[in-house]
Amino acid sequence: MSKILVTGGTGFIGSHTVVELYNAGYDVVIVDDFSNSNPKILKQIEAITGRVPEFVELDLCDELKVKAFVDANTDISGVIHFAAFKAVGESVQQPLKYYRNNFYSLINVINGFNSKVNLVFSSSCTVYGQPDVLPVTEAAPVKKAESPYGNTKQIAEEILQESCAVTPEMNVIALRYFNPVGAHDSALIGELPIGVPQNLIPFITQSAIGKRGPITVYGNDYDTPDGSAIRDYIHVVDLAKAHVAAIQRLESKKAESNYEVFNLGTGTGTTVLQVIEAFEKATGEKLSYTIGARREGDIEKVWGDVTKSANDLGWKAERDINVMMSSAWNWEKYLKDNPF
Ligand code: WQD
């Protein structure tokens, strides 16, 4: 049974991917430092899968410890690298924290395996900035990032592409996520924002459950059907399944290139106000919101062309916005009765 290293495996997307790897018959070892996640997630993964995840608490910025870990785990056949800081706003206030953590960890993982590794990298549609053409394809130009967070994703892709160009034994797939939302249908794992949620869906669910006040819609003067900004929201379980498909592609060695990029979205754009309406329809909960000013650094509209993922990964998102909303709400209600 192939064993996959999942760095950041107790995080939002990481934990859902561990579940799908088990479902697909893989063995898993999780490495995390709990800098942006909760140790209880390990128990939750066990409750869902019946498997006790192999786990090592490790700071991936520590080069010697990463090398020692890899040398002691010679049965790892692939890596899914989630471990990174990801708060756009925080990255603007603390750029060095983001550049140090996101690059040291990635480079230490590559070096730990002496660059001989099948690696799936967690990237983001943020590398496109505001695309000139929609839906945006993987061939679209990468634009100057609006934040240090986005810049770490762009530069990480360059590090991987340039490393692959000179190391045939290194095989990489970079997955550009659109907006990951929702939760596992068991409601035992989901998004665990620390502090006031910056992202729309966790703010909506916390507002609906009474933890937060009304939602502020950041701008309704965009060139969109209702004036609010458009994003391509994708269910986290669909996203997790795409990571399994990416590992399988790397193992199949079908790719012509040892560095590939794929969009992970639904191909459908949804405005903020449409999300609010979908949440109310899916849950029966009434939301209160106000219209505020645009948020610094936000783009107007983006949704992905997911043809390449369908053709080459054999993957397509299956869950619609209603399932995204109802699963996020079920998770918020679970958290109320079972605080972490
Ligand atoms: C979505 C839309 C906001 C909150 C970022 C990163 C991306 C990924 C997800 C890590 C926007 C609007 C939000 C609120 C609002 N990061 N909004 N009121 O900014 O598209 O993407 O987070 O995985 O890489 O770029 O996501 O959820 O913050 O915002 O109106 O209280 O909701 O303006 O239009 P974003 P988001």
UniProtKB/TrEMBL annotation:
Keywords assigned by UniProt, alphabetized: Carbohydrate metabolism, Galactose metabolism, Isomerase, NAD
SUPFAM superfamilies cross-referenced by the UniProt entry: NAD(P)-binding Rossmann-fold domains
The organism's place on the tree of life at top rank: Bacteria
Gene name in the database record: galE
Catalytic activity of the protein: UDP-alpha-D-glucose = UDP-alpha-D-galactose
Enzyme class at the top of the EC tree: isomerase
Name of the molecule in the record: UDP-glucose 4-epimerase
Pathway assignment: Carbohydrate metabolism; galactose metabolism
Entry-linked InterPro entries: Epimerase_deHydtase, NAD(P)-bd_dom_sf, UDP_G4E
EC number: 5.1.3.2
MF annotations from Gene Ontology: UDP-glucose 4-epimerase activity
Cofactor requirements of the protein: NAD(+)
Subunit details: Homodimer.
Domain NAD-dependent epimerase/dehydratase, residue spans: 4-265
Matches recorded under NCBIfam families: galE
Record PANTHER family: UDP-GLUCOSE 4-EPIMERASE
Homology family: Belongs to the NAD(P)-dependent epimerase/dehydratase family.
